[in-house]
TrEMBL record:
It is an enzyme of class 1 (oxidoreductase). Pathway: Amino-acid metabolism; tryptophan metabolism; Amino-acid metabolism; lysine degradation. This is glutaryl-CoA dehydrogenase (ETF). It catalyses: glutaryl-CoA + oxidized [electron-transfer flavoprotein] + 2 H(+) = (2E)-butenoyl-CoA + reduced [electron-transfer flavoprotein] + CO2. The keyword Transit peptide applies. The keyword Repeat does not apply. SUPFAM superfamilies: Acyl-CoA dehydrogenase C-terminal domain-like (SSF47203), Acyl-CoA dehydrogenase NM domain-like (SSF56645). Residues 1-17 have a biased composition (Polar residues). Belongs to the acyl-CoA dehydrogenase family.
Length: 417
C-alpha cells in the first residue's frame, strides 16, 4: 500500500541539476521523521498507519476539495470506516475492535491528513457517542446500539454544548423531567443544543440534560417526535463535515432511554477526554499534510532562477515545520503509551490537545506562505487544514479552558471563575 509519508520528488525539468540530483537520492527518512520515530512503533501500529493512509489516498483525497467547497459530508463513507474497524476502534464492548490507544491515535492522524471533518466524524461516532454507551449504558443499550454503530450502519451524535453553555456545560438549560411516579415513568426532554456533529444524519443522539437528580444522559432516537436537527450553514471551517443546532420540544422518552451509569458532568467529561486524546494525534495529520505539500511545491516552484527550496528563508520554514511535527508526534505517542498503561491523567490530555493543536495551526499557516497566492485555492490543502483547525482549536475545550486545567494542576488553584 502507498503511504502519505512517501517522499516528494522534484521535477528534473524545473530544478537545477544539483537540486534534482539531491532529490533523486534523499536521506533515508528525511521528512517528517527526522529522528527515525517510526522505530518506536510496533509492526501492528505501523500497519494501522499504512492501511488508513491508503484508504485516505484512494477514497478521500480525490474528493475532499469538492466536499469542502460544497459543504458536503458523505454519509456513505461511514460503512467503509466501519469495515476498516475505525468506529469505536478503541472500545471492546459488543464486538468493537478493541485496538490500542496508540493505534487509534495513528488512525486519527491519517484520517485528519485527509480532512479534519473526517477525523471528527470518527471521533463523534466512536469517542463520544459509542464511548458514552460503552461506559455508561446498560447491557441492553450496548447490545441494541454498539454493533450497528461499529459497522457504520447506525450513526450517532453527542449533545452537550448549548447556545449559551459552551465552556461551562454546568450552566446548561436543557432539562429532563419525569412524567409520572416510579422508576418506569417516562422522561420529557426540553431545550436546545448547538454545534452537534453528525446530528442531521444521525439515527441516535446521546443527549445530556439537567434533571432533579443532576446531569444525566439519554439515548434519543432521532425520529422521536419533538426532536429537530438543523445543519448550521455558512461555515468557514469544517465544511466537509456536519454540525447542527438541536431542539427538543417536549420529547417524550421511555424510562430505559436513561444511561444508568452516568451521574453528573463526570459522565460526558469521560467521553470528552477520549475525543481530546484523539485530537492530540489527529491535528498532526493536518500539519504533516500541509508540510509535505509545501515541501513538494518548494522543490518544484522556480523563482529567480532556482527552486524555492534552495532559499534560506524557505528552508527555515520547512525545518521549523518538520521539528514541530516531530515534537508533537513524540508528545502524542507518550500520551498514547500512558493511556494504554491506564495511567493517563486529564491534565496530560489537556497538554496534548492544547499544544499540538496550536502548533498544527501554525504549521498549516506557514505552509500556506510557501505556496504563495496559489495556496488560497482548493487546489492546495494547507489553508483548508488551517481553517478546519480553527474549529478543532475551539471544540472539546478551548485553548483557555485547557490552559486553566494545566494551571490548576500546577498551582492547585482552580481559576475558571
Amino acid at each position: 500500500m502507498s503511504s502519505t509519508l512517501d517522499r516528494p520528488t522534484a521535477s528534473a525539468a524545473t530544478t537545477t541539476p544539483e537540486v534534482a540530483a539531491q532529490a533523486a537520492k534523499p536521506p533515508a527518512e528525511p521528512r517528517p521523521h527526522l529522528l527515525g520515530l517510526e522505530g518506536l512503533l510496533s509492526d501492528a501500529e505501523r500497519e494501522v498507519s499504512r492501511t488508513v493512509a491508503a484508504f485516505v489516498d484512494a477514497e478521500v483525497r480525490p474528493h475532499v476539495a469538492e466536499w469542502f467547497e460544497n459543504a458536503h459530508f458523505p454519509r456513505e463513507i461511514m460503512p467503509r470506516l466501519g469495515e476498516l474497524g475505525l468506529l469505536g476502534m478503541h472500545l471492546s464492548e459488543q464486538g468493537c475492535p478493541g485496538r490500542s490507544a496508540v493505534e487509534y491515535g495513528l488512525a486519527a492522524l491519517e484520517l485528519e491528513a485527509g480532512d479534519s471533518g473526517l477525523r471528527t466524524a470518527v471521533s463523534v461516532q466512536g469517542s463520544l457517542a459509542m464511548s458514552a454507551i460503552a461506559k455508561h449504558g446498560s447491557a441492553e443499550q450496548k447490545a441494541q446500539w454498539l454493533p450497528g454503530m461499529a459497522a457504520g450502519r447506525i450513526i450517532g451524535c453527542f449533545g452537550l454544548t448549548e447556545p449559551t453553555a459552551g465552556s461551562d456545560p454546568g450552566s446548561m438549560k436543557t432539562h429532563a423531567r419525569r412524567d409520572g411516579a416510579g422508576e418506569r415513568a417516562d422522561w420529557v426532554l426540553t431545550g436546545a443544543k448547538r454545534w452537534i456533529g453528525l446530528a442531521s444524519i444521525a439515527d441516535v443522539a446521546v443527549i445530556w440534560a439537567a434533571t432533579d437528580e443532576g446531569v444525566r444522559g439519554f439515548l434519543v432516537p432521532t425520529d422521536t417526535p419533538g426532536f429537530t436537527a438543523t445543519p448550521i450553514p455558512a461555515k468557514l471551517s469544517m465544511r466537509a463535515s456536519v454540525q447542527c443546532d438541536l431542539a427538543f420540544d417536549e420529547v417524550r422518552l421511555p424510562a430505559d432511554a436513561l444511561l444508568p451509569g452516568a451521574r453528573g458532568l463526570s459522565g460526558p467529561f469521560s467521553c470528552l477526554n477520549e475525543a481530546r486524546y484523539g485530537i492530540s494525534w489527529g491535528v498532526l495529520g493536518a500539519a504533516r499534510d500541509s508540510y509535505l505539500e509545501a515541501l513538494r511545491y518548494s522543490l518544484e516552484r522556480q523563482q529567480f532562477g532556482r527552486p524555492l527550496a534552495g532559499y534560506q528563508l524557505t528552508q527555515k520554514k520547512l525545518a521549523d515545520m518538520a521539528v514541530g511535527i516531530e515534537k508533537g508526534w513524540l508528545l502524542a505517542l507518550h500520551l498514547g503509551r500512558l493511556k494504554d498503561a491506564g495511567s493517563l491523567a486529564p491534565h496530560q490530555i489537556s497538554v496534548g490537545k492544547l499544544d499540538n493543536t496550536r502548533t498544527a495551526i501554525e504549521i498549516c499557516r506557514e505552509a500556506r506562505t510557501v505556496l504563495g497566492g496559489n495556496g488560497i485555492t482548493l487546489d492546495h490543502a494547507a489553508l483548508r487544514h488551517a481553517n478546519n483547525l480553527e474549529s478543532v482549536r475551539t471544540y472539546e475545550g478551548t485553548d483557555e479552558v485547557h490552559t486553566l486545567v494545566i494551571g490548576q494542576r500546577i498551582t492547585g488553584i482552580p481559576a475558571f471563575r
